[in-house]
Design a protein that fits this description.
Strand content of chain B: 25-35%
GO molecular function (chain B): ATP binding
Number of helices of chain A: 15
Keywords (chain B): ATP-binding, Nucleotide-binding, Transport
Shape of chain B: globular
Family (chain B): Belongs to the ABC transporter superfamily.
CATH class of chain A: Mainly Alpha
Strand content of chain A: under 5%
Protein name (chain B): ABC transporter ATP-binding protein
Number of domains of chain B: 2
CATH architecture of the largest domain in chain B: 3-Layer(aba) Sandwich
Number of domains of chain A: 1
Helix content of chain B: 25-40%
Radius of gyration of chain A: 23 Å
Helix content of chain A: over 70%
Largest sheet of chain A: none
Oligomer: heterodimer
InterPro entries (chain B): AAA+_ATPase, ABC_SmlMolc_Importer, ABC_transporter-like_ATP-bd, ABC_transporter-like_CS, Mo/tungstate-bd_C_term_dom, P-loop_NTPase
Chain lengths: 294, 364
């Protein structure tokens, strides 16, 4: 902080500080506080707001618990997001390892570009591309039928498969880069030493690479999980009624049901669970906030 | 027990660059062999070829007379000690040492026991549960040795492992390495650019330059009978006097140099008329008293005295190709006596004068 003042002078330093504080206060803290406040109040017509019926209550949370369908979707969303996280980790780990320790010079640069370029396209469009690939008469089904591997097209959309594929794809970068960052700092000689001492590839990863990359793995998992649990585009486009995401329920409370208080309670419940998930992950991987900040 | 290592016409190319060129040599079982050369001479490549991290472009690497082609580093009877040691920072000391055993499926109790035995061998008992970060440089060094010895390799490969240590510790580790090698009987192959390390520890030395092995021999041979100017100038200090051979007398020859004729050992039986160099080690030169004579003599003004404690280096003006250095034993009065003189008469014997073909020197 003192460094900032010394380098830029008091005027710019104060401006930077103030704008950051304003940003955090008005864009992050205030809306969240308002949402929490909303979630504990009953939904009332405008005339009754501030009246005797406008009291704090747990009713909105009780609704989530009592509604078996919503509760089911809630836990299914958490479970599916975990699955997406595990899948993304499985897909991204080899990519990140290859980038960090195997690929050299131009090949590495090319691979990074190949990873990033698709993300210049809007998320909705990318997801829609998957819709085209996976739909009933899409490229993938046509290819499978054409090769004689299946008789009739498989219904990928409208089920969980499409949503899973779409999400793993959507969040690849958020998993690859934390992993890559962590793995890149691993001294190659350690891998060679382990190999020289007779370790199999599996053991080298289990005992040397993964312990070293643990903070990166935790960050990647947390990001992927949060994004998966909080997305609405992918389940909207690639899912169907049977693969409803909890965010879709929240959406409908706000925009279809017009019950902001109920929606806020649902959203807050999701937020709490995501935070719990992060804490559990950090505990499980024995990483601290400082590790993650690195 | 150790096994022999044989390089049979080994060449290693990286694209157009030839890192190792036609190297053939045999290192005996239980031998302490050093590859000595400047950085970039290909010695690390040789180590990686033996350990299995690289396969030679041409030729064969044999360990215990078994061809190693296609056998990866995890299945060769070798263990490598890296220049930066590459200890596993997230494992405890004993886990580091026992890692090779873990990879071989040895049970935990037995691993622990073996690690503690090795900690005794390297004189670090009670360090089993420490973190690597708690160790000093010398201790890490020894843990790296223990980790490599734990897998009972037939050949231990060492890639300049002492270069990061300070002088005192380095000298101590030299004798310790030698002692461990004698005790275990494992073949040691040591890579270094430090001639002091190579000369003190090795049974034999291979001097390398630009991918080729120029000379293989015992330390004394390398030092006292170098094959060419490069070996002579890379190993030890030397004074060079270029000239032409003017007469042959048995195993000796006379060479005409800029500072007069010199008589020396004609190590390569060079014929009359050949451009050659006379090479004299600084410690084989002495200052002559009035009236005293030597086989070869030159006169010069002392330019500078470098006081080293046990020795005093005297730099003479313009007598040889570069400045001529004398390496004199300090008897407490040497410097005062020499500083009084404006002109020194320097003498050296035929026996101390080596006549070598002209060629590239390590000075460039």
């Amino acid at each position: 902080m003192a460094e900032l003042f010394r380098r830029t002078g008091p005027l710019i330093a104060w401006m930077a500080l103030l704008t950051t504080l304003l940003w955090v206060a008005f864009m992050i803290v205030l809306p969240q506080v308002m949402m929490v406040d909303f979630s504990f109040r009953p939904s009332l017509p405008p005339s009754k707001i501030g009246g005797p019926e406008d009291v704090y209550t747990l009713k909105n949370y009780a609704t989530l618990w009592a509604n078996t369908i919503h509760r089911g979707i809630f836990f299914k969303t958490i479970w599916s997001s975990m699955l997406v996280t595990v899948l993304a980790l499985a897909v991204c780990y080899p990519i990140a390892y290859h980038l960090a320790q195997v690929a050299r010079g131009q090949a590495a640069a090319l691979l990074i570009v190949a990873l990033i370029v698709p993300f210049w396209v809007n998320e909705i469009l990318r997801t829609f591309a998957w819709f085209l690939i996976l739909s009933r008469n899409g490229i993938f089904n046509s290819a499978l039928v054409g090769l004689g591997l299946i008789d009739r097209p498989i219904q990928f959309i409208d089920g969980n498969i499409g949503v899973m594929i779409g999400m793993v794809y959507a969040y690849i970068l958020f998993m690859v880069f934390p992993l890559y960052n962590a793995m890149e700092s691993l001294d190659r000689h350690q891998i060679e030493a382990a190999r020289d001492l007779g370790a199999s590839t599996w053991r080298i990863h289990w005992r040397v690479v993964i312990p070293h990359a643990k903070p990166g793995i935790a960050v990647g998992c947390i990001m992927t999980f949060m994004l998966s649990a909080g997305t609405i585009a992918v389940p909207r486009l690639l899912g169907g009624p049977r693969s409803r995401w909890f965010t879709e329920v929240i959406y409908s409370w706000f925009f279809d049901g017009g019950d902001w208080n109920q929606g806020a309670a649902y959203a807050f419940a999701l937020l709490i669970l995501c935070i719990v998930f992060i804490l559990v992950m950090m505990r499980l991987f024995r990483v601290s906030l400082q590790d993650i900040a690195k | 027990m150790g096994q022999s290592v044989e390089l049979d016409n080994v060449t290693m190319r990286f694209g157009d660059f030839v890192a190792v060129r036609n190297v053939s040599l045999k290192i005996g079982a239980g031998e302490f062999f050093s590859f000595l050369g400047p950085s970039g001479c290909g010695k690390t490549t040789i180590l990686r070829l033996i350990s299995g991290f690289m396969e030679p472009t041409e030729g064969a690497v044999r360990i215990g007379s078994k061809d190693m082609r296609g056998i990866g580093p995890n299945r060769r009877p070798t263990a490598l000690i890296f220049q930066n040691l590459a200890l596993f920072p997230l494992m405890k000391v004993w886990e580091n040492i026992a890692f090779g055993l873990e990879a071989r499926g040895v049970g935990k109790a037995q691993r622990r026991r073996r690690a503690e035995e090795l900690l005794d061998l390297i004189a670090l008992p009670g360090y089993a549960d420490k973190a690597v970060s708690e160790l000093s440089g010398g201790q890490r060094q020894r843990v790296a040795i223990a980790r490599a010895l734990a897998v009972e390799p037939a050949v231990l490969l060492l890639d300049e492992p002492l270069s990061a240590l300070d002088l005192k510790l380095r000298q101590h580790m030299r004798s310790e390495l030698r002692a461990i090698q004698r005790k275990t009987g494992v073949t040691f192959i040591y890579i270094t650019h430090d001639q002091g390390e190579a000369l003190t520890m090795s049974d034999r030395i291979g001097v390398m330059s630009q991918g080729e092995v120029l000379q293989i021999g015992q330390p004394a041979d390398i030092y006292d009978a170098p094959q060419n100017a490069f070996v002579a100038t890379f190993v030890g200090e030397s004074n060079l006097f270029p000239g032409t051979i003017s007469r042959i007398e048995g195993k000796e020859a006379l060479i005409e140099t800029a500072v007069g004729p010199m008589r020396g050992r004609n190590l390569h039986a060079l014929p009359v008329g050949t451009p050659a160099i006379a090479l004299v080690r600084p410690e084989r030169m002495r200052v002559l008293d009035a009236g005293e004579a030597a086989d070869n003599m030159l006169e010069s003004a002392p330019q500078r005295f470098d006081f080293e404690g046990a020795f005093i280096n005297v730099l003479l003006d313009g007598a040889g190709e570069r400045e001529t250095i004398l390496h004199l034993t300090n008897d407490g009065r040497t410097q005062a006596r020499l500083q009084a003189a404006t002109l020194l008469r320097v003498g050296f014997d035929t026996d101390a004068t080596m006549i070598l073909p002209q060629g590239q020197t390590a000075h460039g």
